Every structure is written in structure tokens, then in C-alpha cells.
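User: Let's play a game. I give you a shape written as C-alpha cells, and you guess the letters that built it. Ready? Here's round one.
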């Protein structure tokens, strides 16, 4: 990365991670990222790609390495190995150029307990290089309003609930228009109304063209808000890509609607395709056959096919399968680590 376009005016890309041809431009990328704490491998060989304009959900159970990856992305933790590129800038060298365009909500944002929410935000705003002093008041009020904290902004941070602290952290990430917003477990401690507000903030950011990285251990959260997902398990990325593709690639059954269920089952069995009755038709596991082959067989046998659908598995199924596969794969490595620490 050259960093040659350091002088790019506000609102334009700081640098260009990839621009040529059809390859997507990346807002963030890691290569071979690894972080070791003593004997704990928190993050291992992570190659993360965050396409510009995406809402990428980092999904993983507790301890899977989400926070550590996010901290390395933001330059808050130095990787043991590997590289991070943020808005086209190599980190940590390009931090001063990239970070003003990045809003982040990470654990322990360091607000002052005896200052009010508003005063804390004004203090944070003073450190924003892209915010002129005269614009601070307006920016603070807008951010407080956006996260639903305007009514409690005069109260001391010390008395805030976990949910209010989360909202204030989120407001800090929204003080100026950002190219990238990184939110570590943003709905942590929020009630359902708060969760809906965070979802709306994410949708608004996406609508205005910002890239968003959001971590969660809640599958429903990722499914509801994200265009892309990276599934982490024991410090490694076990799957990543567009959410729709991830779900599609895991579907292995074809649901065929037909009023002639017996005929359909007979035709498929005659063609050595295993199938069973399903609501309104038959279900075929696409293990040793393909969808076109199934449909050809049915149509040639004169079975009326009203509809054929690939069964979409929920992200929950995908997540469970990937992490189970990951368990087997990583067992030996984990054993080694755990034995070493005994
Ligand atoms: N500063 C640290 N010192 C030692 N170990 C750490 C440190 N930070 C993280 N770890 C360990 O690294 C692993 C990954 O932790 P991390 O917080 O990144 O996971 P996570 O997916 O964000 O989990 P959670 O959802 O619980 O926040 C865990 O085993 C954790 O105990």
C-alpha cells in the first residue's frame, strides 16, 4: 500500500485496498492475522475481507476471537503475526490517516464516570480530527438523538445502565460521518427496544454507504442486520462471504411441490434417487444427485411439478455445523495448548 492519496479530501476514499477490475474494493482486510496471549491462541491465521458498503457480521461463540480481531483491526492490539489493512492503509503505520474515518464501539470506551453522557461525548468529539470546534455541539446532540439517549444525556455516566453505556459508546462512533463503523457486541445489555434502535442505526449507516462490521454471538442478530458474515470458531474463520451465499451453499435438499406424491416417489425410486414425502410433495436430499436431474426425472415420468425450492437452512444450522466441524478439526491443536497449560 502506498498511502499516496493521503491528501484525499474528506468524503473520498483514504486509499484503495483493491479497485481494479471486478474484484470488490475492501474497506478492511487482514492476512494471516494471529494473536497469542501466553499459551492461548486467541486468533489464528485469520484472513478477513470486508467489502466496501457491506454490513459484515462477525459471528462466533464466547471466546472465539471476535473482540481480539476487532481490536487488531482498529490498531488497539498489536498482532503477534499478520497484516491489517484499514480503508486501504496498512496498520498501524497508516492509523492516523484511516482512523478518523472509522467509528468504533468496543468494550470499555473509557468514558469519565463523573461527567454526564453529553459532557463525555463533547470531550470525545474534541479529539475528532474531522470535526470543527463550532460543529461539536450539533454533532453531539445529533448523535445522542440517534441512539435514543437525549433524555438522559445530562446524567452522570457513573449512574448509566449497561444499555445506556452501550448507547453512549455507539453515539461516540457516530459523531462524524464514517466510512467504516466497527461495533463489538452493540446490543449487549440492551432491551428489545434498544436492540431495534441499534438495528435501525446499522440499517441507516448501510443506507448512507458506510461499511459496518458488527460482532455478535447471537445468530438472529447477524441474520437480521448483515449482508455478509464471517463465522469464527476457536480463533479461526471457518466460513465467510455473502450471507445469502453462505446459507445457499449449506442447503442440500430440494423440496418439490406436487399433488402426485406417490407417482413422484415411484419415479424417483426407479431412478435410484432417494426421496420421501414432504408437506405438499416430496423432499429429495441432493447427495448423489442434482436438482436438474430430479426435475428431469419427474417431468419425464409425467409428474406435475408445481414448484421446486432449495431448502434454505437457517444460519443457526450453518453455524452449528461449521462449529462442530471446527471442533473436530481443531481438537488436536486445542489439546496441545491445554496440555501445555496444565
Ligand atoms: N488480554 C488478554 N489476555 C489473555 N487472554 C486473552 C486476552 N484477550 C482475550 N484473551 C483470550 O483470547 C480468546 C479470545 O477472546 P475474545 O475476547 O477475542 O473472544 P470473543 O469472541 O470476543 O468472546 P466474547 O464473545 O466472550 O467477547 C479467549 O480465550 C480469551 O480468554
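Assistant: Ready! My guess for every position:
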Amino acid at each position: 500500500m502506498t498511502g499516496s492519496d493521503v491528501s484525499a479530501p474528506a468524503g473520498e476514499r483514504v486509499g484503495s485496498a483493491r479497485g481494479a477490475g471486478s474484484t470488490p474494493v475492501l474497506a478492511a482486510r487482514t492476512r494471516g492475522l494471529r494473536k497469542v496471549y501466553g499459551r492461548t491462541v486467541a486468533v489464528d491465521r485469520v484472513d478477513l475481507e470486508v467489502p466496501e458498503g457491506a454490513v459484515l457480521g462477525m459471528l462466533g461463540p464466547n471466546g472465539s476471537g471476535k473482540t481480539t480481531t476487532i481490536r487488531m483491526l482498529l490498531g488497539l492490539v498489536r498482532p503477534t503475526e499478520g497484516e491489517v489493512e484499514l480503508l486501504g492503509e496498512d496498520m498501524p503505520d497508516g492509523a492516523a490517516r484511516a482512523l478518523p474515518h472509522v467509528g468504533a464501539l468496543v468494550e470499555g470506551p473509557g468514558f469519565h464516570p463523573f461527567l454526564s453522557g453529553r459532557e463525555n461525548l463533547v470531550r470525545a468529539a474534541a479529539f475528532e480530527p474531522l470535526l470543527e470546534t463550532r460543529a461539536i455541539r450539533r454533532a453531539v446532540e445529533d448523535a445522542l438523538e440517534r441512539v435514543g439517549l437525549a433524555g438522559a444525556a445530562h446524567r452522570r455516566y457513573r449512574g448509566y445502565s449497561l444499555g445506556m453505556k452501550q448507547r453512549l459508546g455507539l453515539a461516540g462512533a457516530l459523531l462524524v460521518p464514517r466510512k467504516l463503523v466497527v461495533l463489538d457486541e452493540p446490543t449487549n445489555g440492551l432491551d428489545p427496544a434498544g436492540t431495534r434502535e441499534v438495528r435501525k442505526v446499522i440499517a441507516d449507516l448501510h443506507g448512507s454507504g458506510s461499511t459496518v462490521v458488527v460482532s455478535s454471538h447471537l445468530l438472529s442478530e447477524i441474520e437480521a442486520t448483515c449482508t455478509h458474515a464471517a463465522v469464527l470458531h476457536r480463533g479461526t474463520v471457518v466460513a465467510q462471504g455473502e450471507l445469502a451465499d453462505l446459507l445457499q451453499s449449506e442447503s442440500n435438499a430440494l423440496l418439490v411441490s406436487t399433488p402426485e406424491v406417490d407417482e413422484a416417489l415411484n419415479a424417483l425410486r426407479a431412478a435410484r434417487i432417494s426421496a420421501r414425502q414432504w408437506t405438499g410433495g416430496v423432499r429429495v436430499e441432493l447427495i448423489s444427485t442434482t436438482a436438474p436431474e430430479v426435475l428431469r426425472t419427474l417431468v419425464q415420468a409425467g409428474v406435475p411439478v408445481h414448484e421446486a425450492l432449495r431448502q434454505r437452512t437457517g444460519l443457526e444450522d450453518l453455524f452449528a455445523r461449521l462449529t462442530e466441524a471446527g471442533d473436530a478439526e481443531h481438537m488436536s491443536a486445542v489439546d496441545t495448548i491445554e496440555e501445555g497449560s496444565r
